[in-house]
Design goal:
binds NADP nicotinamide-adenine-dinucleotide phosphate; 261 residues; globular; oxidoreductase; alpha/beta; Rossmann fold
């Protein structure tokens, strides 16, 4: 009987950073599940890497539920690493952009995390791909004060993110203290979520770890051709989150070191 390989799942992995994270995890000896919302492109990417594929649209709760059921069947022992990487950076700024961006980048991460939480094994690690673009000082002082990481609940954070979308839709986001960036706001939410989850899961007997990471500015479809970093360097920065010390209350890393937000 062959030894069980540690199991890793990566979202939004048919291209860009997610694909390279799968490659690096494979090279580190993980059994890798590459997921993507487009089954054809996902399957092809997985075949090229020699890893496994499962479909996942992080915008669709039913898709997350199907993935979880499939994972239980695939390896009843559960997951060792989850990299919540799927994200969008859309052009322009209007109600639709705000809604889609927050739904994919913030609620998409939350859906995946809540779905996989029961499947996590002892010492499992969750890495949420955020961005240094998501700086809290983009928010008004009043909004920043509501992001109290010691007391804020997950539901309150979700209501906070939804408030941004509602305020953009109502044409009052400026007066309400929000920035004119859906992407930046969504990533503030992702980094805050990592802090809240780390706090809430501190007493979990499985000794779980959760961290948000920034890959830096990377030459992908999202980052564009003028970005500073190769996809290899960006993916290594994401996987630097796997080495973040578990007892450190700071939960946002770039290149394996604290990043500010
Ligand atoms: N590139 C940078 O400079 C940079 C900097 C900071 C943070 N990041 C973050 O790094 C992550 C990866 O970015 P990237 O540069 O690799 O971007 P990318 O090349 O545009 O890839 C994004 C990936 O997310 C997937 N995706 C989008 N919506 C999805 C959904 N609803 N369900 C499942 N998958 C979905 C895309 O799938 P499709 O192919 O189907 O669209 C694609 O595979 C993102 O979270 C991004 O915000 C990137």
């Amino acid at each position: 009987m062959t030894a069980r390989l540690p199991l890793a799942l990566v979202t939004g992995a048919n291209r860009g950073l997610g694909l390279e994270v799968c490659r690096q995890l494979r090279d580190r000896g993980y059994r890798v599940i590459l997921t993507a919302r487009d089954p054809e492109r996902g399957r092809e990417a997985a075949r090229d890497l020699g890893v496994e594929f499962l479909p996942l649209d992080v915008g669709d709760s039913a898709s997350v539920a199907r993935l979880v059921a499939e994972l239980r069947r695939l390896d009843p022992e559960g997951l060792d690493v989850v990299v919540a990487n799927a994200g969008v950076a859309l052009d322009g700024f209007d109600a639709q952009v705000a809604a889609t961006t927050v739904d994919t980048n913030y609620f998409g991460v939350l859906r995946v995390v809540e779905g996989v939480l029961p499947l996590l094994r002892q010492d499992a690690r969750l890495v949420l791909v955020s961005s240094g673009v998501g700086q809290r000082d983009l928010l008004s002082a009043d909004l920043r004060a509501r992001l109290d990481l010691d007391t804020l609940t997950r539901d309150e954070l979700s209501a906070f993110m939804q408030q941004f979308v509602d305020d953009v839709q109502a044409g009052r986001h400026r007066e309400a203290g929000w920035p004119g960036t859906a992407y930046g706001t969504s990533k503030i939410g992702v980094t805050a979520l990592a802090h809240l989850l780390a706090r809430d899961l501190a007493g979990d007997p499985r000794h779980l770890d959760i961290v948000a990471v920034c890959p830096g500015w990377v030459r992908t479809a999202m980052g564009g051709p003028n970005a500073e970093r190769t996809v290899e360097v960006g993916a290594a920065s994401i996987l630097g989150g796997l080495e973040a010390p578990r007892d450190d209350p700071h939960r946002f890393y770039r290149d394996g070191a604290h990043a500010s937000w």
